[in-house]
Amino acid sequence: EAKELASEKGFFLYLAGGPVRDALLKRASRDLDLVLEGNWEVLLPELLAKTKGELLFKSQFLTYKLRLPQGFTIDLVTARRETYTGVASLPIVEPADHKADILRRDFTINALIYGLTLPFEEEVVDLVSGLKDLSEGKICPLHRDSFIEDPTRAFRGVRYKVRLSFNYAGDFYLALERAKEVEAFEKLSPPRLAQELKLFFSKEPLENLFKLIEDSDALNLFELSLLKKRALKSSDIDILGLAIKELKPKDREKFFLLFLIELEEKSLARLGFFPPEREKILKVYKIFTKEYLENLDILERVEAFEKLPSYVLLRLALEENLRHTIMEFWNTLRHIKPHLSGHDLKALGVEEGKKVGLILREIRRRKLKGEIKTLKEEKELVKA
Ligand code: CTP
């Protein structure tokens, strides 16, 4: 539909970036990026009507996200020129032709476009030797100041290297050096850094996770970004698996960020955790030593764990000395609760609200200790 509408209006339409790269590599691609040399606003009303699509959002970079009823989303991009005014700052954008749109991109393998309409219908447009680099497995930035303009590109480069088993080439290391010289990574804003790191987890298969982290580490990217990276252990994978299975998407993202770093003020702030959340995380991290937890009675321990957001609890479980206690809670203890409810207790003659609470806690304590199990035993305890 977009192709027909663009042709009618005399605009030029292209497929660009990831989908072109992946199609040439015969890999499945998740995204669809359509680039228009023209004005999407002119096409949008009819495009939405014809596809029964929904406009999800419009960004400051002249892009639109469209959700189709078939269940997938498409990025509608306006061919644009980007002008960078400062190190690691967001660019000023203005509509431009396909050449400028190619030249604003991160790596040569991502700078290939495929014509869907005239003047390059069914042709790959390759202005920067992207096809050659793709066949030789090279990750080359388009120019040596690429990472000064956008330091997240270095992390993107790591993702492509690991995902495609490619190698850094061309000006990659020079671009890194130049970005280092002007402290571009330090200047990257916390939300942009956090967003980029979340892509490690959301865009890449999990078995690549350790490789992504090792590779970023080898390039010193964490250190340059002012993060203190945590020493990873192979046993972490189990807890990561639990987080993926059991946490809500937003909590999972936070867990992943905490998974990467040492729990310390500086790194938490660097990844955009707000002061109250930082304080809370650091407070429990400080208090919850093995000795402290062992001195709590079993119910107090369960209640203390229950008060924590689950992404914090699972992060604490990555600490060797807390792992066993937290996993015992996570796998079994948290599910042990009284059969009887407050309602039942009132029916059994316990009038006072405060007493109901006390008795329910006592039932749970004894169940956690394994002293009682059945409903009958719970009722006997209430009578007593
Ligand atoms: N791009 C860029 N610099 C960035 C982010 C994106 O130049 N910091 C360009 C690249 O040309 C990229 C395109 O925008 O191909 C689309 O970005 P994105 O959807 O993030 O990446 P994909 O290429 O689709 O790759 P992935 O498979 O990692 O999603």
From TrEMBL:
The keyword Chaperone does not apply. InterPro entries: NT_sf, PolA_pol_head_dom, tRNA_nt/polyA_polymerase. Keywords: Magnesium, Metal-binding, Nucleotide-binding, Nucleotidyltransferase, RNA-binding, Transferase, tRNA processing, tRNA-binding. GO terms for biological process: tRNA processing. The keyword Magnesium applies. Its cofactor is Mg(2+). Pfam families: PolyA_pol (PF01743). Residues 13-139 form the Poly A polymerase head domain. One of its GO terms (molecular function) is metal ion binding. It comes from the Bacteria. Belongs to the tRNA nucleotidyltransferase/poly(A) polymerase family. This is Poly A polymerase head domain-containing protein. It comes from Caldimicrobium thiodismutans.
